[in-house]
Amino acid sequence: MLANIAVPLLGIADTAIIGHRGDSAALGAIALGGLMLSFLYWAFGFLRMGTTAQVAAASGAAADARLRGEVQRALQLGAGIGLVLLLLHSPLLALGLSLLDASDAVLAGVDDYISIRIWAAPATLMTYAVLGTLIGLGRTRHLLWLQLLLNGLNLALDILFAVVLDYGLRGIAMGTVIAEWCALAAGLYWLRGLLPKVAAAKAARGDWRQLLNVHANLFWRTLFLLLGMMWFANAGARLGDLELAANHLLLQFISFSAFFLDGYAYVVEAQVGQARGAGQRHRLVMVIRRTTVLAVTTAVALATLLWSAGPWLIALLTSLPDVQSRAAEFLPWAALYVLLSCAAFQLDGLCIGLNASAPMRNATGIALVLFLLADAWLTPRYGNLGLWWAFILFVLARALALWPWRSALAAKLPSRT
Q1: Distances from the Cα of 8 to the Cαs of 84, 148, 151, 254, in angstroms?
Q2: Which domain holds residue 33?
Q3: Which of 135, 186, 240, 299 has its CA 20 to 30 A from that of 148?
């Protein structure tokens, strides 16, 4: 859990520095630029999720050769996709900017930010494979140290480049790029220590078509999810720079809470995956029951904290009075989103652990369609409030659409013990 909640600190640190030294346009540029990169990178989130499922199953079955092969293929695939994104970043960036409805000042900032951040693409995607391996093996201590290194170095470099050297938005991007490459180097070193034979293994010669087929559903699920997040941000941009900046601040709290709650889902992924490999159905049931109780309790605590301490937390991220006031207005809805989100995370963890990606794809696609329909009806009538109502429906619909599959998925687990 500690390792997982370190992930959104990258965005929070960037937001806090620009929030105190920039204006609402710069803050909006961080918001849209970060979401565009999330859209780009997490479309390939199967490198993390798929690797976790396969590594956990291989570990549970004590299949060392299979385990090494899964890691090798994931690293190679991450490096290859990252290089392609780096080579194609100019047309991709132009396409992304053309789809945004933000002001010229925000778009110029997004251009500067992404043009620098994209140089970390291979490192980012290879790190997904490293993280997936560590989660699948249950090596969360190494996971924690890796995230602390990434975020600590990122914060230090942000302060150096953006505050001390006064490079502003570009300095924020430069610091993040350097931090991500350093984190990959550390991750590969720790992975080499955990799996000594990985470095000496021959290049993977497995069936790449089969590998991509396994991950295809995870690709579409993540794409649908990010389309929803991107739509939310862009819908806020259409309402004005102030709404965009305010929504972005609240999304930082949601992101922090989401990664916190997703820590329980990671446990589900790893433990269920290992139970699948070992054929231990009783272990699967025990893990789901215990993590769900903890996740619901934590979601209530996080939502309560956000609602009660929200104004103080907003002031930590920005000194702009108008942004503070606007963000505080929608705090209750952000807290409700956090409260309802834990169900979707838990059910996602079950699906990933059982390597059942098709239900995740279908549920997220259904939720996206409902979100777009709700936004089209509510936002013109109620403004930003209607947008938040539609956004809450998005996360609730994901869980409701997955719920009918939960028992059928668990029943498919073979039991050998």
Answers
A1: 25, 12, 9, 9
A2: 2-411
A3: 299
The answer to whether 95 and 47 are in contact (CB under 8 A) is: no
**pLDDT above 90 (res 391):** yes
Residue 75 lies in a domain: yes
Q: What is the count of structural domains for the chain?
A: 1
In a domain, 417, yes or no: no
In-domain check, residue 108: yes
Burial of 92 (0-12, 13-18, 19+ CB in 10 A): middle
Q: Specify the length of the chain in residues.
A: 417
Q: How far apart are CA 369 and CA 80, in angstroms?
A: 32
Task: Examine the pLDDT at 303 and tell me if it is beyond 80.
Answer: yes
238 within domain boundaries: yes
Tokens at residue 285, please?
């049931």
With a pLDDT cut of 90, the percent of the chain lying above it is: 21
* In 43-120, alpha helices (H): 46-60, 64-87, 89-98, 104-117
Helical (H) or strand (E) element with 322? helix 321-329
Number of neighbouring beta carbons within 10 Å of residue 369? 13
